[in-house]
Fold these 2 entries.
Entry 1:
Amino acid sequence: MFEIVSKKILAENVVEMTIKAERVAKAHKPGQFLILMNYEHSERIPLTIADSDKEKGEVTIVFLVVGFSTNELATNFNVGDKLYSVVGPLGTPTHIENFGKVVVIGGGLGVAPIYPICKGLKEAGNEVISIVGFRSKNLMFWVQRIESVSSRIIVTTDDGSYGMKGFVTNALQKLYDEKEKIDRVIAIGPPIMMKNVSKMTLPWGIPTFVSLNTIMVDGTGMCGGCRLEIGGETKFVCVDGPDFDGHKVNWDEMEIRMKVYKNQEQQILEEHNCKIGLR
Amino acid sequence: MDKKELLELGVVEEGKPKKPTPRLPRREIACQDPKERIKNFNEVALGYTLKDAVYEAMRCLECSKPRCVVACPVHIDIPSFIGLIARGKFEEACEDIRKYNSLPAVCGRVCPQENLCEAACIINDTNPKNPIAIGRLERFAADYLLSQENGNENKIEIRHKTPFKVAVIGSGPTGLTCAAELAKMGHTVHLFEALHKPGGVMMYGIPEFRLPKEIVQKEINYVRSLGVNIETNCIIGKTIPVSDIMNEFDAIYIGTGAGFPNMMHIPGENFAGIYSANEFLTRVNLMRAYEFPKSSTPIRKPKKGVVVGAGFTAFDVVRIMLRLGADEAEIVYRRTRKEMPGRGEEIEHSQEEGAKIRELTNPVRFIGDENGFVKAVEVQRMELGEPDSSGRRRPVPVPDSNYIIDTDLVVIAIGQTPNVLIPSALKNLSTRWGSVINVNRETYMTSVPKVFAGGDAITGAATVILAIRAAKEASRGIDEFLKDPQKKWYPQAFSEKK
Ligand SMILES: Cc1cc2nc3c(=O)[nH]c(=O)nc-3n(C[C@H](O)[C@H](O)[C@H](O)COP(=O)(O)OP(=O)(O)OC[C@H]3O[C@@H](n4cnc5c(N)ncnc54)[C@H](O)[C@@H]3O)c2cc1C
Ligand SMILES: Cc1cc2nc3c(=O)[nH]c(=O)nc-3n(C[C@H](O)[C@H](O)[C@H](O)COP(=O)(O)OP(=O)(O)OC[C@H]3O[C@@H](n4cnc5c(N)ncnc54)[C@H](O)[C@@H]3O)c2cc1C
Ligand code: SF4
Ligand code: SF4
Ligand code: FES
């Protein structure tokens, strides 16, 4: 169980892995995530299910090497190795119906999780405009894959090395200025990007949904560690989300709660002399 | 062990009558020194030596109408197993207990025995406060067998296999027990657990220093040896839809516990450094954050910790805070020590370790620093008013009595309720207070045909032994149902199960 069947380095510090997890693959719906553990005494790390193959019983994840556990996963695990634990699919699936015209935005690592969402939306009859943003051309991945499930795709890079120069928000602004009639926006990426997208669409009155990645432990509604204020109420991101109305998220609280373990994260990296940098 | 060694321990010689010594004082259990133990997570109570166990077993009268057995929720044949210990048959003693309880090493440690079997022991009448230490003897017998090679393997023969398949959801004490009982009856049992390790609260809630995780896993291995198939990493309602389970199995037992943490819903509750008890305990116990960075799950270490609440959970949390190196750790409780639901022994142990209790105090708001980390709690003084429905005097706020307690880590331990995942997926499942499942008092069947439930899921947070009792009774209901599904099982009366 939980054998790694393929591994690819997509860009600097970005790894794609496909894992055997039959039950998870079978039950997966767009917007859901899984939690995996490298070894028996490892952390539980939540990662979005970027794709699933129900026949083969496999799930695909794409992750960024940011700290100790993702570094360990990227360096110690290769095809044929087995993970200690994989559980899922977790979270409430993304709400998919025929909304009309949907702009789906993926920023950096957020590009991977939008794939099943675009696919689902397209199957439901939507016109899907995807905006995918990277810092630079050498960090790009899955552009063709996203394109294959979109009616139209806009690529942005912060440094202008590919596609439109600027942030995903610049591309969104442009669509709005061009008078595209947008029925819904879905944005996945770093919190700051999701926050800025939400801020932008609020005055336009476009329903905007984001996928939150608060710190989690169990992912089943048992610990409350993932809790966040949404529209004045405390919600558990792992079960009530991870998708929420971006206009209702308390972004300041989100920022605070992501920093709880900053010192310890630094400590474990130093203790194990980890060097982040995978090409 | 040879005969000579046994006789040196003072056991009853074969063929000779026992001469009980009820007037001797109860044998205390050796504990780690409080000054030492707050520096480690090793077990506090060290357990009986062979000599201690035989001494204590010799005190038992082996009554013919034992009151202790009546008081034990699962009616372990206490005089029988104690008699075996007194005769040097240590392994047999545990096998004997296992006929009634598959988790003796756990129960011997965490059962509130002072209110159950030991409270009923007849020796209290003549030698007050010196009942037989039944729990410690139970632990001794279990530890003895578990430490032997193959000690966690089943030795009884299982009756012929029936064609029935039962799904048990949740691997806490109730799920494990129900699975064990059904397996002994010859049914095929599949036990599903959401987490990566089976054991429920025994693994993620109760700390290592009260209940070593290795012991829990050994008892679980015994359950496996009965033929129970345990599948971890499987959340029913997510990994497998409830409807698939309904189609695939002849009966279902829900033992999903009460894992949803209650929060206080007061301002500032989401500041960093404020945990629910479940998160704090799971990080420390299941994920072994106390070994960080050897294990890779972090926890914040408090300098001055505050725990809100006063049950089992609160005492475990305050003792963990001290072990994580807190200079101070205190419990804030809105009633008084007299109303505390925690176990006597645990309260005592926490006091020895330096935990403080602030009675008649209730938090009203949390205060954060400029980075969003908690730095203080504003509390309000309380006084006791009229008794409420539970008979406890209701705390009422004293006007204008607010003041501030400085802290850098707060844990909210004010109780748990059952998770709504399964109740919301099963149409027509009768519940009360939103998520506590109602069952038929005799059979433990829920309002949904072929679905049974027990443990904290039907009572709200209770105790290990009550969860075990529910499972034993339910397993009989399930067995009867499997053999005669046509019987008039419903409509039936649903009610609260005590
Ligand atoms: C629902 C969800 C979906 C996610 N999907 C993806 C994904 O598809 N690809 C991807 O690269 N990352 C994803 N993440 C984030 C990923 O879980 C973290 O990057 C990972 O846990 C970091 O672990 P680490 O030990 O390498 O880094 P650390 O050094 O421990 O932490 C680095 C950063 O990750 C955050 N983090 C740490 N632990 C957790 C945790 N248990 N849960 C969430 N965040 C944490 C920290 O706040 C910090 O900002 C997702 C998170 C959530 C909650
Ligand atoms: C900190 C703490 C200390 C305690 N100390 C004591 C003590 O000293 N003595 C005592 O007698 N009692 C004590 N208790 C209470 C006791 O632990 C519980 O009453 C008992 O564990 C309840 O057993 P259960 O089997 O009903 O549920 P649990 O032990 O809660 O087990 C339920 C299991 O079901 C799993 N589950 C839930 N939903 C699903 C799903 N959808 N699919 C698959 N699996 C699922 C959970 O992950 C969990 O493993 C304590 C409780 C706590 C929290
Ligand atoms: S299970 Fe609990 S009540 Fe029963 S004998 Fe053991 S300690 Fe006593
Ligand atoms: S009541 Fe006390 S003395 Fe009698 S059998 Fe039970 S434990 Fe022994
Ligand atoms: S991760 Fe524990 S409740 Fe959400």
Entry 2:
Amino acid sequence: MMSAAFGAPQDFTPALNNVATVALIDDYGCAIFTPKGFKTYVLTIGLLPEGRGAWGADFLRASIAFMFTQTDALVLKAYTPKSIPSGFALARHAAGGYLADNTPDHWEWKWTIAHWIREVSSVGDAVALMRAAGEIEKADEVIKRMSPAR
Amino acid sequence: MRAAVIDPASGNVVNVIVADAAIDAAPADHLLIDVPDGLAIDHRWQWNSVDGFKPGPELQAELDAEAAAEQAAVEQEAWA
């Protein structure tokens, strides 16, 4: 589980009362993206035992794609406690996060929209998904900033 | 409990004191308004009966500048 605080239950009631929070839920897990600054969200993911492994990796990748193509998100962050090494593997190897900070008790991961488009998606696919979701301005921004013709 | 002393003409917060607006009297020609818990009110804030407490022009400009700087930093990182 990736979270911003470790070792104690977190009360997500305030976050879920915030209309800007994005909570994605599927059969074996959930991903909650809490707004933290300008177009930036902090990810907390919870997986049932059945969701750990390939399902969790797919779910996390799909959740990140959702955020970048169907919301205003430009930057995503997550914190994985060093006491749970599988969080490192999930964030880095399965989801392609880059290490933004390394403290004695946790790693901080980031995903930026440009990095995600270059490494995981493509300008064309990302723009198509954004347009389908009604994120027209964001799609135009991607074309303006990342089109090969630039 | 904290309360703000308000100049009723300008809405400016002129002081923040330990008081209860329901019990204590306001200084002469001023209003005494309880400060909600967790709100860091100081002289850069204003109050009116419609909006309650809100940042004054100087503080609002500072907040706007901070937001603009944050926005620029995020966009630079996001699109790099």
